[in-house]
């Protein structure tokens, strides 16, 4: 045991922990910020009754018909004033009584405006005596796994793993290079691989705390489901962290200043923040750029995490995203070993 505690790898790894816990900003961004973000999104997109849409009508008869629909709140208003209310966003639609018909004035680029138009026409047609050709019913889904908070939690987890991996390695290595500490380390009897391994070991220990804290909070507060194997979920988190750590190591291999590495890290992460489907599905982007989107490590990580947590997929079913993550682990790491600068 004494030989372990006296080894340079042990000392370097424990130093990484001490430096990390002395920085409250780093602890906030890694442990607290994703939980606060989940709370905000969970409240904003919580299960609640459908919104009642404000509309107007130019006659009492139309107003009465519109108010029969529970999704609409209508008031009598003349056309001039109603047009003004539309432009200021106070109402979504104005129903204008005409000669033997109804005209709808609304903004068709606004999804709520299009919804108001459908509801208004249905209510008015029904009040005029129109009967449904086919009886329909609603089967609403509000169970765990089908909510927005369930969708976004794996995305937030992937985003947090990316940030802590890339920023944690990049800043620490470049700061040591800028202070000439790497030059001193390379002159010591310490094997060079132990210096880089200390970052990986400290990252894996912090990863356990980071993942358990965030997913535990999501489960207790929002009831986010874990339909797949927990050990497989843990393996996916480790693979994600190592792959993005490898990318962070590559970014920090040559940068000499904090300003330079900050720009490079933002350049690498910005496309993933936008394209990788953290808050909405990555399939929304055009087919032309889908090969690029799917090749990003964060896209693969989030797809794998969602597949495990929400669909209960096993590792064999997640072979494609895991293969992409493995490639991002191996290729940047091998390049880093060749180009890493110690001074």
Q: Biggest β-sheet: count, sense, barrel?
A: 4 strands, mixed
The fraction of residues assigned to DSSP E strands is 5-15%
Low-confidence stretches: none
* Overall 3D shape: elongated
Task: Estimate nothing, just give the exact number of structural domains.
Answer: 2
Relative helix content: 55-70%
The average pLDDT score comes to 83
Question: C-alpha Rg, in Å?
Answer: 28 Å
SS element count, helices: 14
Explain what the structure shows:
The model has no long low-confidence stretch (mean pLDDT 83). The protein folds into two domains: 233 residues, no CATH class; 75 residues, D-Maltodextrin-Binding Protein, domain 2 (3-Layer(aba) Sandwich), CATH 3.40.190. The protein has a four-stranded mixed beta sheet with strand order 2-1-3-4, with helices on both faces. The protein has 14 helices and four strands. Helix 3 runs antiparallel to helix 7. The chain is mainly alpha-helical and 343 residues long.
